[in-house]
């Protein structure tokens, strides 16, 4: 009994102390200097107020209230999305003509090379006309020449270009001498640019080459390049060409950038057919003019008499006679035996058209020119009287000896010479014991001056 009472008193005291502790702050129960790390949580974040037009959703027992999210600001437009669509730059115009040269056919900076000239024998002597000619692709015309042509066009690099559409032209039956290609194109660096206004003109730029052309046995043309260009070029025009109208012609490829390795060139075209034998060998001319080296016989021209009725006319007739040319032709020996002899060409006094044809033919034959070549003049002159007697002993040599032509006098009666390589022997003629009119055919051949 006493033990139970004691336990009840102790339990009551303990409960009394616990109630007092419940009424004090928690810190009052801790030892001095001891504090808790507990702190109050911040108030919950509330959603911004909704617009009046949008009702706020209400919570239901089964679902919590929906808190609307803050609207995000509109993103700034991307500069890339505002950029205009990229446009390709316009294509670069590649030069195809300049400084007297140009490219024909092909495309871009590739084409057939043509050179220009204002020389009269190339432009039919039309004042101010420019003649453009392609160039034969000859042995020796290599990439170094193509480089010069491209530099004249304004490029840095150049080489030969091979393509059938460029190196060949379709046959043209109506082509004339003015359509044929030139050859032996040769260029030299221009070390003496013009120093005055007089020298800078087209004529001044071509003066030196023009003098050089007169010293050659065949026509030489000058490319129409300005006098201040880095190069000066000229070319030849020969009767026996390295190519015909169709080619092969020079093709050129130009560039502002260095070329990659070039493909191998195509196989060489077949060689052109051999030219016919020399027609000049079947002709012997006496007098003056191109291709003539033997002087005219002195006894064929009679000096004017002191008592001539018209001294001035007599002097002009004598001057025309001494400036004339005559010819002997190789014909079959009229005596037979299969040999050949030279026969004197008789005058043609009754047919002016035939005389003109004979003069044109003999001039071309005398220098082996083709029929299409027309850069010279052929003129029919008054015929020469055949001497009735031998020349006097004091006559200046050489002298004409009629006895040396016994039965060897040839008269052209008609016909047409070969269309490409004309010769008098291709025409119709007779060989007799004398000239019917007692006179010899006289003519003159001369180059035209440009």
From TrEMBL:
<keyword id="KW-1015">Disulfide bond</keyword>
<feature type="signal peptide">
    <location>
        <begin position="1"/>
        <end position="23"/>
    </location>
</feature>
<dbReference type="InterPro" id="IPR036772">
    <property type="entry name" value="SRCR-like_dom_sf"/>
</dbReference>
<feature type="region of interest" description="Disordered">
    <location>
        <begin position="28"/>
        <end position="107"/>
    </location>
</feature>
<protein>
    <recommendedName>
        <fullName>SRCR domain-containing protein</fullName>
    </recommendedName>
</protein>
<dbReference type="InterPro" id="IPR001190">
    <property type="entry name" value="SRCR"/>
</dbReference>
<feature type="region of interest" description="Disordered">
    <location>
        <begin position="261"/>
        <end position="281"/>
    </location>
</feature>
<feature type="compositionally biased region" description="Pro residues">
    <location>
        <begin position="261"/>
        <end position="276"/>
    </location>
</feature>
<dbReference type="GO" id="GO:0016020">
    <property type="term" value="C:membrane"/>
</dbReference>
<keyword id="KW-0732">Signal</keyword>
<feature type="domain" description="SRCR">
    <location>
        <begin position="101"/>
        <end position="255"/>
    </location>
</feature>
């Amino acid at each position: 009994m006493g033990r139970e009472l004691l336990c009840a008193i102790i339990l009551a005291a303990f409960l009394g102390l616990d109630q007092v502790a419940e009424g004090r702050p928690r810190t009052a129960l801790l030892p001095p200097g001891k504090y808790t790390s507990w702190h109050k949580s911040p108030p919950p974040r509330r959603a911004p107020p909704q617009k009046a037009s949008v009702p706020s959703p209400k919570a239901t027992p089964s679902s919590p209230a929906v808190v609307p999210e803050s609207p995000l600001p509109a993103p700034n437009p991307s500069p890339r999305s505002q950029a205009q669509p990229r446009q390709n730059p316009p294509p670069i115009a590649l030069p195809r003509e300049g400084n007297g040269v140009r490219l024909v056919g092909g495309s871009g900076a590739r084409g057939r090379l043509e050179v220009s000239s204002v020389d009269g024998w190339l432009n039919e002597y039309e004042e101010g006309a420019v003649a453009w000619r392609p160039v034969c692709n000859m042995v020796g015309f290599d990439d170094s020449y193509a480089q010069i042509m491209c530099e004249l066009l304004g490029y840095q690099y150049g080489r030969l270009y091979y393509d059938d559409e460029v190196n060949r032209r379709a046959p043209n039956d109506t082509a004339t001498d003015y359509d044929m290609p030139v050859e032996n194109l040769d260029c030299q660096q221009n070390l003496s640019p013009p120093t005055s206004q007089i020298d800078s003109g087209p004529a001044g730029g071509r003066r030196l080459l023009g003098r050089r052309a007169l010293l050659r046995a065949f026509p030489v043309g000058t490319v129409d390049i300005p006098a201040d260009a880095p190069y000066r070029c000229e070319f030849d025009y020969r009767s026996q060409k390295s190519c015909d109208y169709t080619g092969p012609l020079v093709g050129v490829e130009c560039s502002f950038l260095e070329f990659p390795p070039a493909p191998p060139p195509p196989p060489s075209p077949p060689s052109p057919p051999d030219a016919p034998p020399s027609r000049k060998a079947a002709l012997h001319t006496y007098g003056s003019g191109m291709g003539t080296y033997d002087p005219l016989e002195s006894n064929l021209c009679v000096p004017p008499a002191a008592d001539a009725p018209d001294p001035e006319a007599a002097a002009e007739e004598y001057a025309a006679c001494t400036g004339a040319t005559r010819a002997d032709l190789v014909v079959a020996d009229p005596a037979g035996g299969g040999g050949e002899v030279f026969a004197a060409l008789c005058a043609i006094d009754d047919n002016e058209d035939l005389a003109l044809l004979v003069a044109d033919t003999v001039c071309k034959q005398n220098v082996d020119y083709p029929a299409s070549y027309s850069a010279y003049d052929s003129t029919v002159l008054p015929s020469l009287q055949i001497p009735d007697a031998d020349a006097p002993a004091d006559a200046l040599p050489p002298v004409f000896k009629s006895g040396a032509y016994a039965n060897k006098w040839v008269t052209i009666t008609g016909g047409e010479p070969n269309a490409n390589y004309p010769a008098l022997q291709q025409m119709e003629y007779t060989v007799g014991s004398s000239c019917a009119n007692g006179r010899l055919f006289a003519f003159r051949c001369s180059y035209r001056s440009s």
